[in-house]
Automatic annotation (TrEMBL):
Pfam families xrefs: RcpC, SAF
Cross-referenced CDD domains: SAF_CpaB_FlgA_like
Name listed for the protein in its UniProt record: Flp pilus assembly protein CpaB
Species, as recorded: Adlercreutzia wanghongyangiae
Compositionally biased intervals (Low complexity): 217-226
Region entry Disordered, spans: 217-244
Domain SAF stretches: 48-110
Listed InterPro entries: Pilus_assmbl_Flp-typ_CpaB, RcpC_dom, SAF
Amino acid sequence: MKINRRMLVSALCGVCCAACVGLYLVDVRNEADQARAEALARYGGDQIEVCVANRDIAAGEVVENGAVSTKMWVADLLPDGAVTDPAQVVGQRLGSAVYRGEVMSDRRLEAAESELSVPEGMAAVSVPARAVQAVGGSVEAGMVVDVYATGPVSTVKLVAGALVLASSASAEGATASNAAWVTLAVEPERVQEVVAAAQNLELYFALPSAAGGAEDAADASLPADAAEQDAAGDTETAAQATPAAVDAGAGAAANEGAVL
């Protein structure tokens, strides 16, 4: 008899608890509906079904079908270019990161324009560079450097007068101590050589003096006809010197014969 009474009391307590939980959930839902109604009254009653990210999506990632879903959103709170059809974003590569719960927009699909300007006829190649290898991490875009490749046996100058297009040291928020890479402008036919050296050897970057860099730049900018004229002058001088050298050699031989 006591057992039946206990079971009945336990059942009644369970029913009361379930009823309290149900009343609480209804109250929470009513509060949410009321808050939503207030928001609609404040910002406008028009709602639009838009695409919302189900998870964080990194920049450069291709949007998968399960990464977005559609939800109703207050029209006045939508960002410009809000996407309403999942087909507009699924399979597209993001230009910037999107966070969970964020409304997808066309602007997120626009790839950021590269600020890297590669000189005509050159190719951009990035190589690893610790701070100690990059003049204490001070190598930045716009500098002209000499690149040395060193290994267990020898050290050679790999590239002379290479223009620095970008570096991790000049990136936003970076410091000289966390330099990790340098992007150089090199001849396209030398890209393979530079990459192979970066993989198998240690690369060091030397910063020439301003005077040395100016001389190198002047030499590089020397017109082709001037260079040809210089070469022709050198050839003519060498040709003039040759007969004199022959006469001198003949005179020396005659003197030697007279002595004998």
